[in-house]
Amino acid sequence: MREFPDSNGFFCNVGPDGESRSRYGGRYVAETLMPLIGEIEAAYDAARDDPEFNAELAALQRDYVGRATPLYFAERLTEHFGGARLYLKREDLNHTGAHKINNALGQALLARRMGRNRLIAETGAGMHGVAVATVAARLGMRCTVYMGATDIERQQPNVQRMRLLGAEVIAVTSGTATLKDAMNEALRAWVAGVDDTFYVIGTVAGPAPYPRMVRDFQSTIGREAREQILAQTGRLPTALIACVGGGSNAMGLFHPFLADAVEMIGVEAGGEGLDSGRHAASLNGGSPGILHGNRTYLLQDDDGQILDAHSISAGLDYPGIGPEHAWLHDSGRARYVTAKDDEALAAVALCCRLEGILPALESAHALAEAGRQAASRPPTQSLIVCLSGRGDKDMKTIIDHLVSEENRA
Amino acid sequence: MIPTVSDTEIQTDSRLARCFERCRAQQRGALVTYVMAGDPDLDTSRALLEQLPAAGADIIELGMPFSDPMADGVAIQRAGQRALKGGQTLARTLDLVRDFRRQDDRTPLVLMGYLNPLVRYGERRFLEAAAEAGIDGLILVDLPYEHGATLTAQARDLGLARIPLVAPTTPGERLPALLAQGDGFVYRIAFNGVTGSRALDLDHADALERQVIALRRHRALPVAIGFGVRDAGSASGAARIADAVVVGSALVERLADEGVDAALALTRELAKAVREARS
């Protein structure tokens, strides 16, 4: 099998004639950034092969982040659905409460190695922002986080937390004032700060080498899960299930299993339903285009203008998706389905009651699909679900919705 | 030896080439004015466009509005949002070009913007429509030369210049390949940042001038300086160094704040500064 991305940062589906059928990724950025992106790629490739870099990353992952995270057999959820066995990869138990720190730590160490002491980041739900602010504090670096004004409103605890950690949080009011606009603003700040700034992109998107680099830093999820399931059951799982916005937790879980006979299911945010037009399902409801430095599936209109995404979870509220997912989707290697806002909310409640675990609204999309999959499969099968983050940050949204539901009843 | 494109590939008989030839004969720089297509609405945009050449614009850059202009500052972001709100599309931008061409067959018109609307329209189909409508060149902010070979070849076939952007960060080793895909003129970005975010730093004009001279050594194309040209002083400073001066955000702001006549007044002021810069 050919290794992707290729040297131009493309993930290609090649036909039997050797011709490329579709390709995703690339480096579609302004000329000002092109030389720096090349430097980052070279520095990353050198760091990857450097035992010292890897030893420092591994030590911090163990002692600071708290890895390895458990692979937990969810006995009562399994019993509830009465089918396949459900295993939860507990990324919610990481320091800062989500998988985001795996990548933030890796990129911050790379930035320091490159002599860049100012980190910038975009954030939606705030989990990536908190992770970057945290590692910036730990490594003694300056940090600015760009966050949509709409998201600042719905994720207040994370905003306060980033400020407490010493980061500057900048409210982005342009466009729809959500994650995509935060990313636009971070890219603008990067162009202006190209001399000293490192942009820590939080998902498997953006110009090459980011999709590959973020995937590699997140692949620790899948590597651990693979070892853990083999140790616990003696076999590989039947399927992997993870939510996808940009898709970093899913890519991290999927990638180490790509060569295995294991199904992969990505769950997009269905919002109020695909037919409503209010969703964030780029693969199920979008088409290929170019945004934020890469070619991928996007929510867009007939004129190529990017459309607003909608999801109850701020972390999935993005009109694009990482290019490697677009590639896996087209090739059929992974399957992408949707879970709606209300299904995610129901999954939060169920997981709380049966397992005593409060999942993030993002992760709850994966749990909603996991329930459907488990119920339709025999107990001889096992499913690994990425519980990508914890739901403390979502308490206000969850309570508001559950209360309004009770009022309706 | 620096690889360059042979002279036969360079488009000599084009509106852009003739425009730079006229300016050279008059021993002056060219004024390039950027306006956003459809800002704030189609009629205003058409009226401004038609009057720009008489006010002293030698070349017109027409912005193609995009929902996510990641290399633009606030002024051009807002202009794009106003245009989109008014229903501007790529097809309507080409209509605007056709209208303009009916009364002006001389002023070069260059489209500037982002790749996605073109991809959606169909790149080949778009280039054909643009050439047919009377467009002379294209500036695509998010298409680095690494991904641009196919589009450049198609554009050349149709007589469209793909105007390359060169940044302060662009190292010498990128220039041969970058400029080999270029036609028309080279757009030298004056500083690291988004459009309109700073004023041109005339204290360091010597360094910029050396870089412009280095650019011309790589490829015999006119060089335009853009980003940060806000007034007569900066226009004059840039015109002493380069073959052309681009004004964008300042003009777009003037239009938004004070209307078409004020935008034309600024154009006249800048045209005067550019014309007198070398005398």
UniProtKB/TrEMBL annotation, chain A:
Metabolic or biological pathway, per its Swiss-Prot or TrEMBL entry: Amino-acid biosynthesis; L-tryptophan biosynthesis; L-tryptophan from chorismate: step 5/5
Gene3D superfamilies according to UniProt: 3.40.50.1100
Keyword line: Amino-acid biosynthesis, Aromatic amino acid biosynthesis, Lyase, Pyridoxal phosphate, Tryptophan biosynthesis
Cross-referenced InterPro entries: Trp_synth_b_CS (IPR006653), Trp_synth_beta (IPR006654), Trp_synth_beta/beta-like (IPR023026), TrpB-like_PALP (IPR001926), TrpB-like_PALP_sf (IPR036052)
Cofactors required: pyridoxal 5'-phosphate
Entry keyword Cell membrane: no
Pfam families in the cross-refs: PALP
Reaction catalyzed: (1S,2R)-1-C-(indol-3-yl)glycerol 3-phosphate + L-serine = D-glyceraldehyde 3-phosphate + L-tryptophan + H2O
Family assignment from sequence similarity: Belongs to the TrpB family.
Function: The beta subunit is responsible for the synthesis of L-tryptophan from indole and L-serine.
PANTHER family: TRYPTOPHAN SYNTHASE, TRYPTOPHAN SYNTHASE-RELATED
Subunit and partners: Tetramer of two alpha and two beta chains.
UniProt-listed HAMAP family: Trp_synth_beta
Protein name: Tryptophan synthase beta chain
Automatic annotation (TrEMBL), chain B:
Domain of life: Bacteria
Catalytic activity annotation: (1S,2R)-1-C-(indol-3-yl)glycerol 3-phosphate + L-serine = D-glyceraldehyde 3-phosphate + L-tryptophan + H2O
Associated pathway: Amino-acid biosynthesis; L-tryptophan biosynthesis; L-tryptophan from chorismate: step 5/5
Top class in the EC scheme: lyase
Pfam family, one: Trp_syntA
Its EC number(s): 4.2.1.20
Presence of the UniProt keyword Cell membrane in the record: no
Active site: E61 (proton acceptor), D72 (proton acceptor)
Coiled-coil portions: none
Keywords: Amino-acid biosynthesis, Aromatic amino acid biosynthesis, Lyase, Tryptophan biosynthesis
Entry function: The alpha subunit is responsible for the aldol cleavage of indoleglycerol phosphate to indole and glyceraldehyde 3-phosphate.
Protein family membership: Belongs to the TrpA family.
Quaternary structure and partners: Tetramer of two alpha and two beta chains.
Protein name: Tryptophan synthase alpha chain
Source organism: Salinicola rhizosphaerae
Gene name of the encoded protein: trpA
